[in-house]
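User: structure tokens for Malic enzyme, please.
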Amino acid sequence: MESTMKEIRGGGAPCVLDMDDAATVGGGVEDTYGEDRATEEQLVTPWTVSVASGYNLLRDPRYNKGLAFTEKERETHYLRGLLPPAVTSQELQERKIMHNIRQYQLPLQRYMAMMDLQEGNERLFYKLLIDNVEELLPIVYTPTVGEACQKYGSIFSRPQGLYISLKEKGKILEVLKNWPERSIQVIVVTDGERILGLGDLGCQGMGIPVGKLSLYTALGGVRPSACLPITLDVGTNNEELLNDEFYIGLRQRRVTGQEYADFLHEFMAAVKQNYGEKVLIQFEDFANHNAFDLLARYGTTHLVFNDDIQGTASVVLAGLVAALKLVGGTLAEHTYLFLGAGEAGTGIAELIALEMSRQTKTPIDECRKKIWLVDSKGLIVSTRKESLQHFKKPWAHEHEHVGNLLDAVNAIKPTVLIGTSGKGQTFTQEVVEAISSFNEMPIILALSNPTSQAECTAEQAYTWSKGRAVFATGSPFDPVEYNGKTHVPGQANNAYIFPGFGLGVVMSGAIRVHDDMLLAASEALAQQVTQENFDKGLIYPPFSNIRKISAHIAANVAARVWRVGALGQRTWSSMRRAACTARFTAITGESAFIRLCTETVCPTTCFKIPEEHHLWLSCATGVGSSSVSYLLPVLPI
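Assistant: Done. Predicted tokens:
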């Protein structure tokens, strides 16, 4: 056995076979081959490998290549006769699938085609999504995923992810162990109560975690096998779904109060026990009251992130920082008015105030006074403070009562108008004309999803502001011609932030999410907006560069993780070791984004990272700063 190991080492050079058990990226225990064992019950013989072949290989989406299997592979893996004789390239497969998808007239049909591909040929699915991200992002993510969730019961064919219902109460840890993958790094979980702007969709909200994690892989490079979508089914109050014969969830009203809290607590404890403390848990589309409570309760004990609160805030702050290069001034010199005071609105407002405080060295309470919020009862003011929910109280400023948005615009005279209301057509012509009357270039962000719920359209914003608005939305809109000039609306899409943010958090070994890490993500995104983008009126970079953008964000976040001390007990030496044992494969042909590390670090595949991050990483890995690339995993294609 010893001689065999020496042969494998190829001359006795250090390799993963020489290493003892240690903490892993996921927080479990690492075996001698670098695999993550979260619990002792999951012991396996490290040199035993199960290799699929024949018919089973063609049915395994992780390894199936369809007609791209070569003649040699067909012979080796017993595929003769199981495939037509033609051998095609992945590029030809990609062209064929895109041709077929474009034949569908309805976005939902395209969504279903993409999901079928993901279940049959995972590599081709991600290659397709990466190479056609601007065209396919609205299909696998917002806005089409919203319609897919509404009709999830009707289109459901194969389960994706874990469904944990109240029936599993007391057995959630056992349910987690039913999932075949052990090295989980990112979990996206929802209870389906507030899916986009569509309300309570119960168990059918699973489309959101599945879609989000597809983007973690395609845009951020997290291995598909390290991602776990979860739906917590605690019932639904949607009468239409309860009476729908095709509904796939529990047919009961939502549980609330202590029963709900106990169920969530069991889930959070089970995740930590099974996967370790370094697994990132992303809360998705929880109702406002639960979303804030979950962040407050578990933010100090788990690695948790709420994309609706923190992700949205980070991407909007990045857009505002970029917009200031067009309109001038600093964050503190502008006045902000929000329509909507829920998760997104208050989350964005708080991050703006935090960055304002950091820039001006002013107490955050003073910075909050530059930010005003309007909810369903009008402007949030101090006379309403006693009746307000706790997350609205910091925004209750001294002012007389104002009952509607138009009056609030005229009273506050904001320079920035942000919509997070979830209600369409609330930025009326009167509202847009009012803010344009006292601003040369008003910043207007209509962020509600899906498209039907946007506060106004791009055409309305540019027309009513006479082409002067700096405009962005939450859903995609086509360019608008006004007075002979083409205006391209930006999209404040959370997909700019969460893949790179999550990747930076996971790969740095963070055990908690801090606000400084969100600010780091915003800074990195804003830096990617070029003068060419500004000339078109854009305040976000094009999605065609999203993998490079994600790499910048991940590096910035990882560096900030170390500065704020969110690494727990992980030392630089263990980070170097984790980097050395990383076993991620390259996506073929993307030399602009990835390259091989040679020299001291074991050869592994990396995103190419800007030089300003090399010195930081050299401390973490022990590699000279002139030769380092940031050790981020990339998609195995």
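User: Anything notable?

Assistant: Residues 2-42 form one domain.
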